[in-house]
Amino acid sequence: MFTKLMALMNKPELNFQSAGSLYRALWDDEHISKGMLESHLNPDEDGATNNHAFVFKSVQWIAELAPPQQFGKLLDLGCGPGIYAERFAKEGYSVTGVDFSKRSIEYAKEQTALYGSGIEYHYQNYLTLDYTEQFDVITLINKDYPVLSIADRTTLLKKVFQALKPGGKFILDVLTPKMRKNERRSWQYCENGGFFCEKPHVLFEAVYQYDDNDQTELSQYVVVTDEDVSCFICPNHYLTKNLLISEIQPVGFNIFEFYGDIAGKEYSEIGDTLCGVFTK
After folding, report:
1. Measuring CA to CA, how many Å separate 71 from each of 53, 64, 182, 238?
2. What's the CATH fold of domain 42-176+238-279?
3. Quick one: pLDDT band at residue 4, thresholds 50, 70, 90?
């Protein structure tokens, strides 16, 4: 176990996925997914989902931007437990939700059955989408896009463009370079368990910056219990208006609008967040 721990104490290479069993998937971890779902459902928290007052404001704005009477079919990527999807359905959209968290999708399916909202949910990695001109609006909300590598972002954009009907809109939000963190390391003892593990454990946290073409940032979480060592890594990237345009245009999007957030705030070059609306 000591050898395994020491291997994780160094700054990881960007091809960290190749390390195999040293790293674990975050979204479908049995314990972490419980905390993620709680965060989604907390109406006052800006966590896995935006606080629910902002969600309501955001959905109202999107419904004005792309009225469901004209843009009836909506695909919500990274839908989680359906917080946005349920509100979209109430606005009159026919909604499909896709997410890679089994626990969240199971909860979302229970809710649509309970309330009769008719939302179609899929437990799926949205990089494997295979729709053709099926949706009027596609949303990717709460800064999911910057988590992807440039290669995966290109893959996603091509699939989104293919899935949209002519005149359809792709709406996403990202973090700007203003939110980039400094490199740092810290640790804490979690006697009663915590977000990453239900058992007592030591948690080593680190933020690493890279000078690759994508200016990657990695947040690393190493969990040490009496029995094992595990590691979770969250990549992030910080995008500007010009960078988004440079990624969107080669795919075929040539009509775009920018806002300060996904509720229609006025765009600012010094803002923390950025919302792009791209029309096919």
Report:
1. 24, 11, 42, 30
2. Rossmann fold (3.40.50)
3. confident
pLDDT confidence of residue 25: 64
Cα-based distances in Å from 191 to 36, 183, 188, 202, 227: 20, 26, 9, 8, 15
Token output for 9: 């104490």
- The answer, yes or no, to whether residue 198 has pLDDT greater than 70, is yes
Q: Does 20 have pLDDT greater than 50?
A: no
Terminal alpha carbon distance of the chain = 52
The percent of residues above 70 in pLDDT, for the chain, comes to 96
For 124-163, give the secondary structure using H, E and C.
Answer: CCHHHCCCCCCEEEEEECCCCHHHCCHHHHHHHHHHHHHH
Q: With bands split at pLDDT 50, 70 and 90, how would you rate the model's confidence at 23?
A: low
- Helix/strand/coil for 186: strand
Confirm if 186 and 159 have CB atoms less than 8 A apart.
Answer: no
Per-residue pLDDT of 115-124, as tens digits, reads 999 999 999 9
> Under 8 Å CB-to-CB from 24, ≥6 apart: which residues?
230, 231, 232
Given a cut of 50, is residue 105 above it in pLDDT?
Answer: yes
Judge whether residue 51 has pLDDT over 50: yes
**H and E: helices and strands count for the chain:** 7, 11
> What does each C-alpha distance from 228 to 24, 202, 231 come to in angstroms?
13, 11, 10
Distance CA 188, CA 261 (A): 34
d(CA 79, CA 86): 10
Task: Please tell me the distance from the alpha carbon of residue 71 to that of residue 160, in angstroms, as a whole number.
Answer: 15
Structure tokens at 14: 């960007």
128: tokens are 């494997």
- Of residues 68, 73, 273, the one with CA closest to residue 174: 273
